[in-house]
Specification:
single chain, alpha+beta, two-stranded antiparallel sheet
Length: 99
Amino acid sequence: ESESYWDKEKKQPRSRRKLIGKLDEETGEIIPTGKSGRKKSSGRKQEENDSPEPITEHIRVIAEKDEQIRLLKAENRALIKEKQEVLKALETLCQRLSD
C-alpha cells in the first residue's frame, strides 16, 4: 500500500509505504503478513511435493562443498609452492646472467 504526499520542508513529493501482505499467485488474493507473521492457511493441506528438502540432502551438499574447498586449498598450496620454485629458478638465472 503506497500513499503519496508533499513534503513541505524538502519541497518534494514523498511516499509512505505499508506492507499489507503478499500476492498468492494461484488465487490472486493478498495474504496478510502483519506483525504476527503469516496467517493460517485456509485448510489447504501441504502436498508432499511442496515439503522442504530433507536435512540429509543439505548435509550431503555441505559435505560436497567442504570436499571441494579441501581440494581447492590443496591445489592452491601446490601452486604457491610451484610459484616459489619458479621464482627461485628465475632468480638463479638472473644472477648467472648478471655475472
